[in-house]
Amino acid sequence: MIKTIRFNQIFIILLLSFPFLVSFETTNIDDKTFASFQSPEGIDFTSYTPSWDEDKLKDLYKELLLNKHGQEISELNEVRILGGIHSSTNTKGSYHSLTKTIVLYQGNQYETPVDYRETLSHEYGHHFAYHYFPSHHLPFSDWQRIRGIDVADMRWDAFWNYDERYHAFYPQEILADDYVLLYGATSEVETEDVMSNEIFYLRTQHENQDIPNVLENKKLHSFLEEKTGLSIDSSRIIESPSLIESNDQTIRFSVSSRDHIAYRLNLELINQNEKQLVELYEVTSHDTNTLTFNLHDQEIINLADYDYALISIDIVDLTTSIGFETDETRVSL
Asked: If exposure means fewest CB atoms within 10 Å of the residue's CB, which of 39, 105, 175, 245 is most exposed?
């Protein structure tokens, strides 16, 4: 019994120490400084590669400001650009909570601020998380509870047993990606890229697609706004479509009442002998709360030849490039 209590005490101490332990991660820091710049908030931008001069560092600062922020930005100490790779992974960025420093890697390959947009947003999301929610890496935190993810479905051992394979299941990474989707910098995408599927492959999405959709968790939105004082734009909210009707002519869903949202219906038709994947596209051009895919326009489809279908939808907001994919739904034919 005494051993169990002692182990629990040590475990809790380690968990509480996590923000400091990760800060001692070994990285390949180049010795020579090629350029530097200090922002009005006192953030040092430092380049350790000839690919990034002072003007580029100033543009990187402007890119950082595109992420919604509050008083926490003044506590960010430094943003570094390294020419080489991380010492142990192929990541483009990391955050060190003890020194409050963002490090961006592969600066010899990525030579413009927009190349780092999603990475910079994600790493700033770590800074945001440890400022407002310092216990988010602990089981049963308020954030974890309201986020709606079971403790058993997350990994809590990042600081002593880190494994890149489980990156998407560490609470630190989940909250950083939450920040990207709810507060991060965005980019518009072109409608003509819908049919080519390019926007669905390049969209900004949560790394973990198996957890609840953060874009529709209104309780979490209110929690974040209350704790940080930073409002979440209503344009960020995209609810998962709900199937309301399916027959041999149409498949109809209820959707967010938003325009400029691109949808790709993934219809996998299955029988005992074969499978056929059909993709149908729609872009909302005005406010509507229903979305209809017409099957009769697809001459290659003969639904009578199939036993059932697996349906999922890929979604992208054309004004932000933010999106996600829904779970598969089985439909009898």
From this structure: 245
Q: How many CA atoms lie within 13 A of 150 on its CB side?
A: 3
Q: Which residues contact 194 (CB under 8 A, 6 or more apart)?
A: 262, 264, 281, 283, 316
- Helix axis angle, 117-132 to 171-183, nearest 10°: 110
Please list the residues that pair with 331 across neighbouring strands.
309
Cα separation, 126 vs 133, whole angstroms = 10
- Please give the C-alpha separations between residue 184 and each of 28, 56, 66, 216, in angstroms, as whole numbers: 28, 20, 7, 16
Which residues on neighbouring strands pair with residue 292, listed in sequence order? 252
The phi, psi pair for 279, rounded to 5°, reads: -115, 130
- Which residues, including other chains, have CB under 8 Å from residue 325's CB and lie 6 or more apart? 205, 209, 312, 313, 314, 315
Q: How many CB atoms lie within 10 A of CB 198?
A: 13
Closest of 218, 198, 216, 196 to residue 206, by C-alpha: 216
H or E element at residue 268: strand 261-270
101-104 and 78-82 strand pairing: parallel
d(CA 184, CA 321): 11
